[in-house]
Design a protein that fits this description.
This is DUF4910 domain-containing protein. By secondary structure, the chain is an alpha/beta fold. It contains 12 helices and 19 strands. It has an 8-stranded mixed beta sheet, sandwiched between helices. Strands 5-4-9-6 form a 4-stranded antiparallel beta sheet. The two termini are 52 Å apart.
Length: 436
């Protein structure tokens, strides 16, 4: 069950580097094969570089009586991410300059980080500020911030073609449910389904990266290959909360990824919203940047920063559920099955209707038919009518009001009878580009 996995992962202190990322990936790797790749501090990634590695052992603030007012052991959000090692007695004024709260959410511990400027800090509930009445405090941060490695997790399932479907999620937020763990949990469940399914047309690549810097690093190493291989992709995040779905389009807006996701959402009967790509959000910003413009969108439920608990300790187990996670897993599976089934055909019988009964594709007898027979006849006749070498199965399914994957079997039957011929999309695209 996904929530059992959630309970193991939630307490781990994750950041953009460090042992928390490795431990999280090892736990996820118990369900699916995930290869850990390490990149040294200073490795360039376009305008960025891999930062120092950060690991924490202990961090706390004590008052003048030796009472711990803030303890990293109680909640790892209490320590600002990437806080440098520090030990000393500080005045109340100095401590206040290093304390972070959310006055608008007085019972929440905010999530703060300082990845690229060395600093230290603590985060507490705003309502607790009244506890800090002493003139001085002991601050202790036992942490390492030194040259090391950034860790990326990668999984791969080969298919019949080298064309890839990319699924990417992030593992860099400590103890948050929607904005961190829901993505890796859903992606891992989809990965497990595909590994068990087998018989894949596309190859599948699964990335578990620190948000922003991890995607940039991967693109700097593999971006040119991805431009030629990725047929569709999705950033998997914010997948466990809310009644409706949100799909954020790729920057291009009309890619196969967009087409399949919007089609499946439309046919699902679930409430959903479509939003245009914008340069704010998750790693679709990097995959869709101008130098790559990959066909990558993002299927979510409640979007990041669209719920009040975002980036606080209130983004916890109470906000997500097994049911919501599994429903999102199924939505991704439906999209993938539609991508797997989708093909473009041309009808080889163009003079009138072909006689279907002699090919076993139409009942010899008239009269009442079952709903299943009616659906199959509708699928076959529409495939013959609209397979013109330009419309794919998703296009035809839209006319019928069904999910594209349901047309896969009748299309194969028509192909086997010599009535349809599959279009080699690569040859077609090449011919079109040469004409252009």
């Amino acid at each position: 069950m996904l929530m059992d996995l959630f309970d193991r992962l939630f307490p781990i202190n994750r950041s953009i580097t460090g042992n928390g990322v490795r431990e999280s990936l090892r736990i996820l790797g118990e369900s699916v094969p995930i290869e850990l790749r390490e990149y040294k501090t200073g490795t360039p990634c376009f305008d960025w570089e891999v930062p120092k590695e950060w690991n924490v052992r202990t961090a706390y603030v004590k008052d003048s009586h030796g009472r711990k007012l803030i303890d990293f052991a109680d909640n790892n959000l209490h320590l600002m991410g990437y806080s440098v090692p520090f030990q000393g007695i500080v005045s109340r004024e100095e401590l206040m300059a290093h304390l972070h709260t959310r006055p608008d959410l007085p019972n929440a511990i905010p999530y703060m980080m300082s990845y690229y400027k060395e600093n230290w800090g603590f985060c507490i509930e705003h309502d607790r500020l009244g506890e800090f009445t002493d003139d001085s405090y002991e601050v202790y941060i036992d942490a390492d911030l030194e040259d090391g490695f950034m860790t990326i997790g990668e999984g791969y399932l080969p298919g019949a073609t080298e064309e890839e479907i990319l699924l990417s999620t992030y593992v860099c937020h400590p103890s948050m449910a929607i904005n961190e763990l829901s993505g890796p949990l859903v992606q891992t469940a989809v990965y497990r389904y595909l590994a068990q399914r087998g018989g894949l047309k596309y190859s599948y690549r699964f990335l578990y990266v620190p948000e922003t810097i991890g995607a940039l690093l991967y693109l700097s190493q593999h971006g040119e290959r991805m431009k030629s291989k990725v047929a569709a992709g999705y950033v998997v995040t914010c997948t466990g909360h809310g009644e409706s779905f949100t799909y954020k389009k790729s920057k291009r807006g009309d890619t196969l990824a967009d087409k399949a996701a919007i089609h499946v959402l439309k046919q699902s009967g679930k409430p959903y919203e479509i939003v245009e790509w914008n340069p704010f959000g998750s790693d679709e910003r990097q995959y869709c940047s101008e130098g790559f413009r990959l066909p990558v969108g993002s299927l979510m439920r409640t979007m990041y920063d669209k719920y009040p608990e975002y980036h606080t300790s209130l983004d916890n187990r109470t906000l997500i559920s097994e049911e919501a996670l599994q429903e999102t897993v199924q939505m991704y599976i439906d999209i993938i099955e539609t991508l797997e089934a989708n093909e473009t055909y041309t009808c080889l019988h163009i003079y009138g209707e072909p006689k279907l009964d002699k090919r076993g594709l139409y009942p010899y007898t008239g009269g009442n038919r079952t709903e299943e027979q009616k659906r199959r006849i509708a699928a076959i006749t529409n495939l013959i009518a609209f397979s013109d070498g330009k419309r794919d199965l998703i296009d035809i399914a839209e006319k019928l009001g069904v999910v594209g994957s349901t047309l896969h079997e009748p299309a194969l039957a028509l192909e086997q009878c010599g009535l349809l011929r599959k279009i080699d999309r690569f040859s077609f695209d090449l011919a079109v580009s040469q004409i252009g």
